[in-house]
Amino acid sequence: MKLTTHEVRPDTRDRAVLVSLVTPELKRQDAFDADYSLAELISLAETAQVDVMGTLTQNKEYADSKWFIGKGKAEELKTLIGETDANTAIFDQELSGAQVRNLEQFLDVKIIDRTQLILDIFAQRAKTREGIIQVELAQLSYLLPRLSGHGKNLSRLGGGIGTRGPGESKLETDRRHIRNRISELKRQLQEVVRHRNLHRERRKETGVYQVALVGYTNAGKSTMLKQLTHTDVFVENQLFATLDPTSRALKLPGGADIVLTDTVGFIQNLPHDLVAAFRATLEEANEADLILHVVDSSSEMMPTQMKVVDQVLEELGAHGKERITLFNKIDLCPPGQEEMLTTEGEFLRLSAYNEADLDRVRELLERKLMSDSRVYRIPADKGDVISLVYRVGEVLENEVDGSDMLFKVRLNNKEFGKIGYMLAAYDAARLAQGEPGGETTNHV
């Protein structure tokens, strides 16, 4: 059987009934809210170009091993599908291959779960080679243990949700073929990761501070990047508008440059296969010197969204990173709500479209990243060190003193070690010859 990519035309859009099963185990999860999760599933379906024909919710002690929902509720679902002329059922939780097979046979419609829906959206969004590889790897990793349950699904004509791939010409349902393809994609991804790591190392060698924007999907991270850096960045009011990390130079008020990177948005129950495939991309947050957590302060589910971001950062090993919370979209908050926006650690309340608010972000970044000023004595013929000082710091004053240059400089914090190491070598040589030492250690 083959899985091919199809353009979704208005007359072939999927028509779906959305189904949610709420169990006591789910209710015990801190970041889970049944109503919000279903509302988010509706947004995901609409993002995937699906017409939502209706919703169905069941409260049950545990998922049915055969039907996922109860047999009676499956009968109700079948009736609703017939009444609404739906051709797809989308479940808010992840299904096993056997459950998919049983539901397909009973309902005679395409069965999609939340994970497959998110993967489908990512398949639509992937444009770069890295993004395409990551999405296909996640899709195959999801599909492999479920092949026996997706036979009818994969063979349905017309394409649409659940059958979109990031450019692959065919996908045989043979396990060995898929395993070989997964191995090849992992090899390609390792090569991409190697290049990404080289770029990271080069950025580190330049001494430029790296700041990562993280947050729930559609919180306004790309808008923040675009407005702060005054550069062309794709911005769209939709889920997962950004897949590939986008880095731009940001000039701080004092003149120093830093690198600001936008990352893929997080979401409740982000598929593990997707986190694994996108780890190299998500680790931009882990490699950053500082994290800016962008929060949609106008969302009714703001606390839940913040918890989800915390959980993903913890999974990535970046939970302990220094972080500043940016409560974005305060212009959309009801009167009086703005004052209630607070959290542990440093935070700002702002709108990404307010230039005065953006100036406060830039000033806070400079205060966090730049040190107090110091005076450095550098031999005038040491152009590499002088160039480094200008690149990583803000030169407040400079003057000639014999064969040396005196620089009053404010450096970014992590460059003290590099500059100090270089100057210590000069000190040792100059002191041995009875000449003046290097760095003036007093803060000025």
TrEMBL record:
Residues of the Hflx-type G domain: 209-373
Where would one find coiled-coil regions in this protein? 168-202
Enumerate the subcellular locations listed in this protein's record, separating them with semicolons. Answer: Cytoplasm
| Listed GO CC annotations | cytoplasm
> Which UniProt keywords are given for this protein, alphabetically ordered?
Coiled coil, Cytoplasm, GTP-binding, Magnesium, Metal-binding, Nucleotide-binding
Asked if the record carries the keyword GTP-binding, the reply is yes
**One GO molecular-function entry:** GTPase activity
InterPro entries, A to Z: G_HFLX_dom, GTP-bd, GTP-bd_M, GTPase_HflX, GTPase_HflX_N
Q: Which HAMAP family match?
A: GTPase_HflX
Q: Which NCBIfam families does the record cross-reference, listed alphabetically?
A: GTP_HflX
What is its biological role? GTPase that associates with the 50S ribosomal subunit and may have a role during protein synthesis or ribosome biogenesis.
Q: Which family does it belong to?
A: Belongs to the TRAFAC class OBG-HflX-like GTPase superfamily. HflX GTPase family.
Q: How does it assemble?
A: Monomer. Associates with the 50S ribosomal subunit.
Record's protein name: GTPase HflX
Species per Swiss-Prot/TrEMBL record: Paenibacillus solanacearum
Q: Which gene encodes it?
A: hflX
